[in-house]
Amino acid sequence: MTDHLPILLLLLPLFGSLICVLLGRNNAAHSWVVAMISLGGSALLSLLMLIKVLGLKSGDFRYRMGGWPESSSYEVGIELRVDVLACLIVLAVMLVGFLNTIYSKTRVPAEVGEKGSFFYALIQLLIVGLCGIIMTNDAFNLYVLIEITSLTSYALIAMGNRRAALSSFNYVIMGTIGASFYLLGVGYLYIKTGTLNIDDIHNYLQSEDLWASQSIVVAFILIMLGVWTKMAFFPLHGWLPNAYSYAPSMTGTFMAPLMTKVMVYVMIRVMLWLFGSDFVYSPESIWSELIIWMSVVAIVAGSFLALARNDIKKMLTYLIIAEVGYMVGGVWLGNLNGQAGAFYHILSDAAMTFCLFIAASIVIIRTGESRLNAFDDLFRKMPITMIGFTIGGLSMIGLPPTCGFFSKWYLIKGGVEAGQWEFVVALLFSSLINAVIFFKIFERAYFGKIKGIKEEVTVQDRDTIPAGGIKSVPLSMLIPLCVGSLSILIIGIMNKNIFSWITKALEMVNG
Amino acid sequence: MASVEFSLIPFLAWLVSLLAVPAIILLGKKPDAREGITFLAAIVKFGLVLLMLPLVREGKILHFSFGEIIEGIPIEFRVDGLGMLFAIVASSLWILTSLYALGYMRSLKEHDQTRFFACFALSLSATIGVAFAGNLLTLYIFYEILSLSTYPLVTHHGDKEARSGGRTYLSHLLGTSVAFVLPAMIYCYWKKGGDINFTDGSLLTTDLGSGAGLIVLLAFTFGFAKNGLMPFHSWLPNAMVAPTPVSALLHAVAVVKVGVFCVIRVFTGVFGIELLKKLDIAVVVSWIAAFTVITSSLIALSQDNLKRRLAFSTIGQLSYIILGVSLLSDFGVTGSILHVAMHAFGKITLFFCAGAIYVAMHKKYVSELVGIGRKMPITMTAFAIGSLSVIGLPFTGGLVSKWYLVMGTAQSDQIALLVVFLISSILNACYFLPIVYRAFFCRPEESLYEGGRQEAPLACLIPLCITALLSVISFFNPGLFIELAGLISNK
Amino acid sequence: MDIIIASFIEEVIVPKFNYWIYVILMMIGLFAMITKNNLIKKLIGMAIFQTAIILLYVSVGVKSEANIPIISHHGHQEHVEHAQDENHSPKPEVSTDDKSEKGDHHTIDKDKFANPLPHVLMLTAIVVGVSTLGLALAISQKVHGSFGTLEEDEILDQLKPGGHD
To answer: Is the N or C terminus of chain B more exposed, i.e. has fewer CB atoms within 10 Å?
Structure first.
């Protein structure tokens, strides 16, 4: 049974989503149960898979779809590669999905109404897509799964208010450009190597010594561009703030922590497993320098733009853009610490962003106010939410023992080792800006409004005003928040273990 | 050489005040019980610290570590002479400050007392964590926790002034530690290839050059901005918006002493005196400290607000400590460590008096203190003793540490710095003695006060008498402190 | 001058004309997606963009005088001249033996059959493109329902001050 774990944990949400579709309209409650069961089951399965892979000596196992026999020379079937890195991220995706489903229990009727079951269907499909992306070892299959993921996310975002549809449309345009570039890159690779299996392509490139070939370089650039568009790497980030801010809250809380991070994972896979570190970090390449500078710009720009924002969700989305800069820069540093640090940051950022987004959504929904003055005197009214938000904020700033501190530690260490001081400075700078952003909010929340300053409280979104002001927050919203905050601390404290798993897997590929 | 021994006591000493925090929060509705917890924790902590004292005096180092939080770096407690000295000072003064805070907060009927006492306990826990930290990462973690836990104390009043003071506080302290200490620490970790603990100058074994060494040293020195070194000093006077018990313990004793403590650790533990002598970079720090000493004393002269004057005086005194350790001589290092204790006793007395004056008379400004000696003789006598200690005049502990510091300048042939010490002593006298003089010896018609005695409440008076007494006792009996300081400097 | 242009056309454009076509189509599509105001026109651009890529894949799989890739067990194989792959689509040389031996006693000359893989891939891509287009059209319908117009500038005007922001 454990041999088939990868496919099982893809099948559960797939069938779950089918059942949700069949349940039809006005059946949100039943769909919720179905989603809980399938995602909960998958979460358990992914945990089992992680335990299994940790026990393997070779570090990974392959699952061949449809039982196509393995061929030493020419791969025909689609292969799933399950190693520690994949297991960790799959586990993260499943957990976030599960927690988000808990959160969505009260939100789906309020924000999506009768289309509730379709929401659950789409979310489960999205999870299938994401996990497929993480586990697949076939370049074209990756494209298909990227598109599955994107399509479901377009639909999920468009379910929101009137601005959501427009933001989703822009996302469609940009996302399609990105995915098409990726497809084009894969096409070039296929033309040159005749195979689509990632390991095979790598072996072929190596044995035929095709590194200097122009087609391969162009393929690499195209794939990178495609992936960067999808992960909102500055300056290809234009679609992200609107898409995540105007989406329904339970979509935002799921997509913000995961989508861009999985794309970063794709970039790492492509860089290290498909092309190989020799090609990517080759001495004569100016790519590393250039891209690290680009990520510096991303970090600084993201932080500044976040500082300038008055709308809570927009601010958080710009912080995501800065975090993407961390990860891209970290990978391109070219040393083990940078890569492993970026990978650890995927997990850590997922936890942080999830926690912050849920807290922000709770605040916005309960106060009816989506700008920063929603936080006034919040500690008195909603202490648990505020504490959750505080933990997330401290992690963003990078204070121990939250996981944000440790990911910064590894990234800075990588930067110091590689001598890329501009990256180190950018990281520290963004910590300071984050400190300013979050302490401004903490001040408002813990000490209340400054007496004497009147502020216009305008109502942003008619869809989400609760009748009768701030009521106590339902448990279904608090549980994910608490688990999220706890996981920030756990990932931080356990960082040594997680980091050693990651480095072991990376060492195997770096040779 | 010192032998390392495993002991659970450092961990327990740290844990005590940490456990007090939830207890205080839970007992928030019962003020007496709540204050009782504070006292209990303080006394237990002091007791545990004293328990370790005989072992440390024998030259043993007590060690406790749990978990490796990053590859190769555990959370480590390591009690040696320096840590013991600081811990004694901090924990003993916590008991007294708690008593003082009780009197102060209750007479002024302050709000949010639960938050106040809880944050106090947490801050003390962090302070002891710093005192007992065995490696740079542990030090850094507790340093940051201290910044965060003292923030609610600084902004206690919650009004515009308090918040702006809090913002300056946090921006200066967090900004410098994140921007300077963190990269320097990671750089050292990378250079050393592993743990950065404080045994005998960790970086001695690496190939650190002068240029890089200077940058790292300055990064650490400026990064631990709690040491009040210019130009990152402005958080200190701005933090005076806090209630006086906060200013007293935290800013005269705990927070600022954590800053200089970290600097001493960097000089003696991370770099090591030998390496610094070899690289010849410490003299830069000496001059920055000297500059701070003189400038802060001059600014103190111009301050009318009593607490601000005391704040600038503190900045100057802290730079004595930094100056002393940067002399790299035995006497200098011993003197600076001694000054940690002596200045603590003296300054806390002064702050206690300032608070007592506020509670009893609601006066904050020096110009209003004419003739107050007759009204509050006990308080002002204590103030006089504290002033003498800070200036460094006989019969107070301040003289002992100053003596060592001056000898240190002679020992390392830095006569210019000796002159700096002398000038600053004169300046100290200039801004302290007139206060005392005008309080007691003004003509009756100039006095702003009439009537008989009106001292501060007893809970405020007792601590300030005790600390003043301690200042005097430490002059006659400095042996313990000298011994503990010697354990570090005479390696 | 004419000779230069002629040789340019002969050597650069003609042999690789499929690449030129797909590049031009891609640029047209991109241009439409970015510059056009009307949402539907953007979608048309998107469709053109995706089609260009599909054309590329399909075009590289072309072999002259190749048969459909279905192996008949009765040995009905026309003896076709040795066909050349048009735009070098090499299989790794080592594989010839394995693949052709699979369950078949006759050796199969790979060059006689068209390469099915690009077509398979592009079927998938077409499906993806169609779904994207359908989804995008549904979203446009929703946009039209909310804003009453499909012109981007008019929508943005509605969202600025005065509008529900």
So the answer is: N
Tell me how many domains chain C contains: 1
Element (H, E) at A167: helix A162-193
Highest mean pLDDT among A135-144, B398-407, B437-446: A135-144
- Domain carrying residue C162: 1-63+112-165
DSSP C38: B
User: Domain map of chain B by residue range?
Assistant: 281-491
In a domain? residue C123: yes
CA geometry: angle B213, B214, B215, nearest 5 deg:
95
DSSP secondary structure letter of residue B278: H
Give the gap in angstroms from C-alpha A108 to the nearest C-alpha of chain C: 19
pLDDT band at A146 (very low <50, low <70, confident <90, very high): very high
Cα–Cα–Cα angle for B55, B57, B60, rounded to 5 degrees? 55
Alpha-carbon distance C134 to A39, whole Å? 28
Q: Taking CB atoms and an 8 Å cut-off, how many pairs form between chains A and C?
A: 95
What's the pTM? 0.84
* Mean per-residue pLDDT over chain A, rounded: 84
Q: What is the ipTM of this complex?
A: 0.85
For residue A165, the distance in angstroms to the closest alpha carbon of chain C comes to 6
Domain boundaries, chain A: 1-137, 152-277, 281-511
pLDDT at C21 over 50: yes
Identify all chain A residues contacting B155, using CB atoms and an 8 Å cutoff: 443, 447
The per-residue pLDDT for A1 is 61
Q: Which helix (H) or strand (E) holds A60?
A: strand A60-64
Residues of chain A with Cβ-Cβ distance to B135 below 8 Å are none
d(CA B425, CA A166): 71
- Region of B450 (left: φ > 0; alpha: ψ -120 to 50; beta: rest) is beta
Cβ pair A306, A433 in contact under 8 A? yes
Q: Find the CB nearest C92 among A150, A191, A204.
A: A204
Residue C104 maps to a domain: no
Q: Is A453 exposed, middle or buried (0-12, 13-18, 19+ CB in 10 A)?
A: exposed
Query: Residue C111 is encoded by which pair of tokens?
Result: 């060059």
With contacts defined as CB-CB under 8 Å, which chain B residues touch A450?
Answer: 160, 163
Count helices and strands in chain A by DSSP H and E runs:
20, 2
